[in-house]
Amino acid sequence: MTRTKNPRRTATAATAVAASAALAAAVLTAPHWNPASAAPADADLSSAPGDLVWSDEFDGAAGSAPDAANWNHETGNHGWGNNELQNYTGSRDNSALDGNGNLVITARQESDGSYTSARMTTQDKVEHAYGRIEARIQIPTGQGVWPAFWMLGSDFPETPWPDSGEIDIMENVGHIPGTVHGTVHGPGYSGGGGIGASHDHPDGGAFTDDFHVFAVDWTPGSITWSVDDVPFNTITTADVGGNPWVYDQEFFMILNVAIGGEWPGYPDETTQLPQELVVDYVRIYEQ
């Protein structure tokens, strides 16, 4: 089911969100691909997706804000647990509709040498369990550029990470534009022990070349990752090594572009900014 919700956390919990963001929310996307644990993708996607139950098509005037009924902006420049460099802002310079049906998240280097970007979440607004979660995205590129489309359990931060669960639908480190990663993090398999796999561009090219559809097909006890309807990994309850499976609950979605950090490394003389994450749509289907 999908719930479109009003904020429900107390002021104390809201403070915990801000306090936790510096520590927990960035560790969530630390370097973590664990190829030894990757399982073959065996899901049958021929009948997917089912009924569309929610979407944001990002229709609106050029320069307008993303729909506040769907999206929050998390802000700050505290490193996000990975020694990242960007200051996430709510400015239209870093997140805006382009007037052509797209959301654009722009990572910039400012005149003082600092970096700005945006991190948007659907927490307390759109939270969902099961079905297909997908976005059609053209990713940015460059050394130190780190785009992601991912999810956290809806009870975060009351339930701390990693017990809250994390599903990374798509991550990319910008100096390897031909590879994307999909991972889960939970109690006993988080950070560098996250369970996941990578997917290479089928033509040996770069995912920056065009829009691609990044998705998970999610059922009780199973998650399958795909790119452009081609599944590349399935993880089930059997793959978490006897640790808790924390994915049978509602999750909220996150879109962001980080700059620097322990996994992607840092910008260098080859990095060209600004860089844009362009999102055509985000959709949720029942299956």
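[next item in queue]
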Amino acid sequence: MKQDIKTLQLYHLEKVHYLKNEVLILPVALLFDKMNVNKHWRNRFYSIFLFKEAKGSVIIDDHLYELKKDSLLFLNYNQVYYFNPSLVPEGYVILFTKSFYNHVYTGNKLIRSDTAMAEMPQMIDLGASSVAEFWQQFYIIRKEYGRNRMFAKEMICMQLKIFILRCIRASKIIKEHSLPADHKKEIVDRFSELVNQFYKELKTTAPYAEKLNLSPNYLNMLIKQHLALSAGQLIKNRVILEAERLLLHTHLSVTEISYELGFSDNSHFGKYFKSATNKSPKIFRTENKIQKS
């Protein structure tokens, strides 16, 4: 039995625009007019749909997704899809090739090539706080797309990379806030273990969040919910605890202790310690000297 899957190329959709074989930006309604929306399609490019209004559904490979207001839909290369809208969606679609996304190379692994698409979610329901942000970024891209000016291709490519990062960040935040309560407790426990392991080397929240595959803001929120203090304060408390132990129970000099705790110099350690205890390390040691029997 012959498969009824049509293959769509960018040149099928546009004949005039100077970037017609690399990137296209169209109203969704116009795209639906140019293709038979009732057929099954396979694209030879990436697609990002940004909906203002939408109802109905889309089947992508073997998954059905509801078309919604204020949502974003991503189609990867070679995915087979079938739209079943109950009304013509209002919004825009960005269609672009791998070669276009890779046109501007950067050393950052998240954006230097289209491998970032592996992190892209299929569908994002945009929260009220992020809708305006996504549309603002889109309009920047669209404005540049409408002008055939010097460096337009490079600027569209770079702005598209920013848009992709926003999508990935939004999807991770949604996943984070949907974590079950017991899993959140596991994250808090794991963070505490990591702090005990790395407090000498890592003294800010970001590297711990990276190890836990979370955003720093979300990790900080979790720690506050469960421990009633910030993630940064928990880290600092652990460093100060060890500093007090070394000041009271060893004969190491303050300089030796500062290096033992991973500080680059004695002055930095002194300021860090005083900000937590209101005393310099030397005064703390003198006032709390353990008397030997």
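[queue empty]
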